[in-house]
Amino acid sequence: MWSIRNRNWFFTVACGCWCFQLVKAQQSKHIDTPEVLLCDELCEFSAWAMHAYCGERMLGDLPLQCREVKTLDVRLNDIHSLKSGRLSEFDNLKYLFLVGNNMSEVEDGAFEGCEGIQFLSWGGNNFTRLTRSKFVGLRNLMHMLMDNSNIREIETEAFIETPLLKTLDLTGNKFISPPCDVVHPQNVLTDLSLSDNFISILPEGCFSRFQNLERLKLSNNPIRLITNLSTFEGLHSLKKLEMDNTSLTSLPVGSFRHIHTVNEFVLSRNLIKVLEERDFATLPEVEVLRLDHNHIHAIHSRTFVDLQSLRLLVISNNKIMSIGLHAFIPVETTLEELYLDGNELRSIHNISASSIRSLKNLSLARNPLECHCHLSTFRHSTSGMEQGGASVTCRKSNGVEVNIFETTLTATPCPKPTPGPVNPRARIGPTNKPTMPIYGETTEQLETNELSTSQQNIFYVLIFLMVLTVMLGCALLVWWILRVKMRKNRKYSKPVEDNNNVKDKSDNYDVI
User: Where does the record locate the signal sequence feature (predicted)?
Assistant: First the structure.
């Protein structure tokens, strides 16, 4: 009996020890402030770089063992709140990564005593609303990334406590309007990303405070239409504007009149159908223009007339069937790369090295080109040029597709064009009415239409001259007939008068 009790006691003690060890092991996985471990035992520590990577370690708080580091990376842990004064013990800290902690609470003054922090990345959290008091102490902060943090609202001038802030990333949040008033009017911000939000309206004068901004990202927002022409007013230093995948259907005239310093403009993956006359007016500094993956089916002959510095033009994967005559003449001395692959072009008469003299790279793959004389001229003029893709094919009259660079084209050579003036402005004067491509017309058809129109005008002039000549001939004939009749009447009137005189004299004799 005693042995049974002793055995039960032994098993009870053993079970208790096992449970104690299990709880201790579980606590070692979820460490709050383990004073017994050094930084290199808790995290991946580099002594020479003073860098500590403590990611994915189920930490519930900042590891004070690494208080001497310059770079602290505690991403993908369970730090749900940032307590006030906790960071003040990290005297040397310059780079802080708090990404993916599902943090929802930041106490006021959490960054007090952190004047040395220059880079702060704490995206992938759950902040909802941020106030000015959250950023007190970040006086020397220069770059802040707050992407995918469920932010809906930021207090007015919340970043007044960060006067040196240059980069602000608010990608993937829930803004319905750009947070235009979150910075001080005297800010030095150069990079602002508002991509992947729910912004549908760009208010008037929204970016007037961002006078030093150089890069603005508005991609993946349901903007659809720019209704306020002064939206971009104040962006005097803007160099790059990204508005891809914003459902834009058109580019209202004057929309970009305040950003004449832009040299890269991204409008890919929108719903633009036609490039109208002077859509890019007041953008003389643009060097890179991306319009791929839209619904463009026609390009006006004066669309690029103001792009005096254009170097790269990407219009791939559209539905382009017609390009206005001389459309590329305004950029013939600057355009180096042209991408027109994946369209519906049948003729490329005005796209060659002869019409675009500075062209170095041309992509025309996946277009239903027709084999005619212009392709022979094109192939000869692009002999030393890089063709984007070797699968540039054309369809012969019998329906067979051939590679234009590998097959001898038997088409009759095109007649040499009459040389015209060199000045593009002289060819496309402001008073001339350019031909507007109609949906379904190719470039060759446009040229044929213009030629037939001029021939019709000449024909009408000749008809008018012929009618005028006939009318003059008829008038002369009537005049001549009348003159002949008058002469005959005079000839027969004289003998009658003489006979009358003789008769009168005979009558007088009879009376005597």
Answer: 1-25
pLDDT of residue 147: 96
What burial letters (b/e) apply to 158-167, b meaning 16+ CB within 10 Å? bbbbbeebbb
Q: Coil, helix or strand for 5? A: helix
CA separation for the pair 235, 289 (Å, rounded) = 19
CA nearest to 302, candidates 282, 337, 330, 322: 330
* Amino acid type, 155: E
The tens digit of pLDDT for each residue in 294-349 reads 999 999 888 898 898 999 999 999 999 988 888 888 898 999 999 999 999 988 87
DSSP bridge partners of 394: 369, 402
Rounded Cα distance, 312 and 289, in Å: 6
Per-residue pLDDT reduced to its tens digit, 141-165 = 999 999 999 999 999 999 999 999 9
3-state secondary structure of 27: helix
pLDDT of residue 259 exceeding 80? yes
351, two tokens: 């796209």
**pLDDT given at position 6:** 61
Please report, in angstroms and rounded to a whole number, the separation of the first and last CA atoms in the chain. 208
Give all domains of the chain, ordered by start, each with its CATH number: 26-199 (3.80.10.10), 272-420+433-454 (3.80.10.10)
d(CA 262, CA 241): 7
Task: Identify the three-state secondary structure at position 394.
Answer: strand
Q: Model pTM greater than 0.90?
A: no
In contact, 199 and 218? CB cutoff 8 Å: yes
Which single residue is written with the structure tokens 């599902």?
Answer: 102
**Cβ atoms of residues 135 and 87 within 8 Å:** no
The single residue listed with the structure tokens 């030093």 is 212
pLDDT digits (tens, 9 = 90+) for 164-177: 999 999 999 999 99
- Give CA–CA dist 382/389, Å, rounded: 14
The predicted pLDDT at position 196 comes to 97
Give the number of other Cβ atoms within 10 Å of residue 463's Cβ: 10
CB burial string 355-380: b at 16+ within 10 A, e below: bbeebeebbbbbbebbbbebbbbbbe
